Fold this protein.
Amino acid sequence: MKYDLILAGVGGQGILSIAFIIDRAALLQGLNFKQTEVHGMAQRGGAVQSHLRLADGPIYSDLIPRGKCDLILSVEPLEALRYLEYLDSQGRVITNSVPYVNIPDYPPLEAILEAIKKVKFHLLVEADKLAREAGSSRAQNMVMLGAASPFLPLESENLKRALKEFFESRDEKMVALNLRAFELGRQVALKQSWE
Amino acid sequence: MEKMVVLGDEAVALGAIHAGLAAAYSYPGTPASEIMEFLIRESKEKRFIATWSVNEKVAYEAALGVSYAGKRALVSMKHVGLNVAADPFINSSLTGANGGLVVVVADDPGMHSSQNEQDSRFYAHFARIFCYEPSSHQEAYEMTRQAFELSEAIGLPVMIRLVTRLAHSRSYLVPREPVKGQARQVGEKSHWTLLPINARRRFEVVLNKQAELKHFSEESPFNRLELSPENSSLGIVAAGIAANYVLENLPEIKPQPSYLKVSTYPLPEKLFRKIIEKVETLLIIEEGYPFIESTLKGIIGLPGKKIKGKLSGDLPLSGELTPDIVRQALGLPLFIREQKKPLPLAARPPQLCPGCPHADTFLALKEALKEFPQAIVFSDIGCYTLGYFPPYSSIDTCVCMGASIGMAKGAADVGQHPSVAVIGDSTFGHSGLTPLLEAARSNSRMTVIILDNGTVAMTGGQKSYASGNFLLKMIEGLGVKREHLRVIEPLPRNLTKNAEIIREEINYPGLSVIVAVRECLQEARKKKRGQE
Ligand code: SF4
């Protein structure tokens, strides 16, 4: 089993938290993983991405070859499009539909959503709305992780356990909220029919 | 022991701790910062010293002092940091190490967060020391542990060369039982005084150790040679992380080529001789400059053999390796079918955080410089380098740490006016004091703006040595006149006032320093969170 995903978003949107939780869940499940991340300059509001590879055998390259990515999981719609050339023909795009506009030449949202809808397996999630429902719009990243969870080769219990551990070590009060966000995202994905 | 999830940087740090590290020093810089971040976190419980230094040179010297005193020391930095520390680094190979001395340098091929992509293997070669180049987290951990032992056994510093892709890759490793570093007797002190009479003798010693280093490299289990009887035409050499891209694709290459993985320097000559004997073409895949390729090729080449790599154009000379680039060099088809971008995607470059104090300083500077279209603003390295981009478009240079002040002085020397330097507090502490001393003693006609946000913001908020009142006292102490040392608070409501102050000081025919004091927002936020 091999599963390659790209996490995308804007610096500060919590991509690394998603990655960290998936890594932990993989470890809990006895899977191998490699995950790249971006530190330094780009984290200041720039485009950030993380290649995350899961497998039950050895993983060599830290980077995913173009055309081999199984899932693009993005916390921002424009950022989802940036990595389309990495996507396998059967790959999925799961993205937040709510834009994060911090550049003057942000393309029209309709054009972005149109392009995402051209991908056969796509899922648009109103992460902002669901995160607020869970208690804070900052939890959009966990909504998106929830929305991706049915497609990852990871037990949802392991993901939730990793999520709990992650927030417990930072801020105890945030655990329940983020778990709710995860569940809300997961429900959206489970309701979606893909054919 | 239990598996641990770590960054490549952290694998090195853990290896050092488990090797009985006594003290570690560093200056923040991507992609090396997380080594020290990890060491500082761990040092709270375990008993060793882990400190951010004022710059890489001081960090290196501190580590060298630890080594002389007989304890194990680590010094880590990004690649360009070794330029700053080059003086003690090169000379420490002559003085030799006593307690294990390991220097970790993280290169940044592709310049993700750097001003160049220099390859530190050349530095190791230059200083004639041993260098490890890990390809995985486990290797980074094991090599660091071994590096301390080797350093003590051979009496020289040892380098670990990382690249961004490993430094900032997260995976797991399985640690082994830690050992305690044994304090060593303080050694022969005359080694340490590099008067010509000693230095000549020590250089001979270092030269004589080269054969031993090469032998160690040839015997190292981190290098692996797999000769394939099936394929007499192609052999592949992969160094460090490049090995991963090769291994990923190796099963597809038929018939199976001979393969040499290189992880240590000086190059394991014996293994190269074995592989080249068996093949016609040797493809060299390495991250960074074509170090191995040019070593093998020289200017004459190998008669009857083809050496392929970056110099031959089979791989690009610049930028980072990717699985696709390596597939192409291996002659394998890409997985991707030509695909057009769905729509023109606007780039999203990094930018100052909304409300960042630097933004207000830049806007005031821009306002003040309206009447001086001939101004040059020499700047430096930090978040404020993003002042290059619109809407600020406020700075004209970024060369290396601390360069702004020296460059502004040089320009002022030949009549450039206004000659403005913009530098952050930590960068000023790193390398700004000495040029300011020079400018103060000659009362150069220039204006220095120090952005005091109280932290090393770009790399995640490490300690700054030159902030607050302490900074003001230092500036005065260097000889800057009190009446031309001005303090402003960069806030939107102070725009006009601040612009006026900058204008006044530009018009003053001598040296003035303006300190813009306001805390970095990210740091303020962190503190607030801590208090809740
Ligand atoms: S991290 Fe601090 S200094 Fe850097 S851009 Fe943000 S607010 Fe400004």
Q: What stands out?
A: Chain A touches chain B through 51 residues (CB under 8 Å). Chain A has one domain: 2-191.
